[in-house]
C-alpha cells in the first residue's frame, strides 16, 4: 500500500514538473517571438498612447508577414485592401556611390519598422527606356507598405548620371537623398575588383588596375577611367546642387558603416525624421564573414551576399600614392560643401 502511494506521488511530481518546464518553455518562446526592433519603455508600451509612426510589436510581425506573402503572390487583393497597403513613391533614395556600401546601407535601414525597401535596383531615372514609361510605372515597382512607412530605393548609377538630378527633382523636389562614400582610392579599387571578378567568371582577361588608372602616355591619373571618375565625389555633387539644397543630402561614411555601423545608422534615422529603433541588438559581428550581420528578431538573422567584401588585388604603392594625391583637393572641397570631414589620406 505504501509502495503504491509512493509511486502515485512520484507520478504527480513528474506531471507537475513537466507542466512547469512546459510553461517556462512557452514563456521563453512567446518572449522570443516578439520583434525587438522597437525597444519600448514598459510603461509607455502598456499604457502610453502610440504615435502614428509606431506599431504594436505583435502587429508588426503580422504585417511584415503579410507584406512578404503579397510579394510572393499569396496574399489576396482583399487582404491588401483591408490592411490599407499601398505602393508609394520613395521618400528617400540612396543615389550612390557605387561600391560605397549602398546595399549594406539599404539592408540595415530595412531593420527599422518604418522603412520598406525596394529589393531590386529600379534604374528608373538613369535609364531612358524605363524613364519613358512614366512615374506610375516607377511607383508600381515599389514594394507594398503602410501609409505611415517610407519607401527607400537605391540605384548607385543615379549619382553619376547627368540627367538624374533634374528627373528626380521633377518627381519630388523635397525628396531626401542619401550618399554613402568610401575613401576614393579604396572605392576605385573595389570598383575594379567587381568588374575583374565578372570578367574572370566569363574566362575573359582584363587589364591590371595600374594600367587602367594611370595614363601610359602622360603617367598621370587617367580621369577617363570610370572607376577614377566616380571617386571624384565633388564633381558629381555639384551637379546635384543645381537642383537640391545641401540640407536634402545626408552623407554616410561607408568605411565606418563596415566597422561601426550603429552610429551611422542613428544619424540616418535622425536625417529621415524616424524615431530611433535600430539598436546594437540588431547588429552582430560575424567573425567568419568579417563584417556585421543583421538580426531582425530572435529567429531571423541575415548576412549580406558572399560577393560583398571581396579581397582586393595588390596594387602598386606608387599608384596608390599618386591616386591619393590626385583625389586630395577634390576631397577637401567635398568636406567643405557637405560639412562632413573624413580621415582620408
From TrEMBL:
Where do transmembrane segments lie in this chain?
A: 12-29
Name the keywords, alphabetized.
Disulfide bond, Glycoprotein, Golgi apparatus, Membrane, Signal-anchor, Transferase, Transmembrane, Transmembrane helix
UniProt keyword annotation of Glycoprotein present: yes
Q: How does it sit in the membrane?
A: Single-pass type II membrane protein
Source superkingdom: Eukaryota
- Gene Ontology CC annotation, any one: Golgi membrane
**Reaction(s) this enzyme catalyzes, per UniProt:** alpha-D-glucosaminyl-[heparan sulfate](n) + 3'-phosphoadenylyl sulfate = 3-sulfo-alpha-D-glucosaminyl-[heparan sulfate](n) + adenosine 3',5'-bisphosphate + H(+)
Broad class of the protein's primary localization: Golgi
What the record says about family reads:
Belongs to the sulfotransferase 1 family.
Quote the protein name from its UniProt record.
Answer: Sulfotransferase
Please report the organism this UniProt entry assigns to the protein.
Answer: Pipra filicauda
Its organism's taxonomic lineage begins at: Eukaryota, Metazoa, Chordata, Craniata, Vertebrata
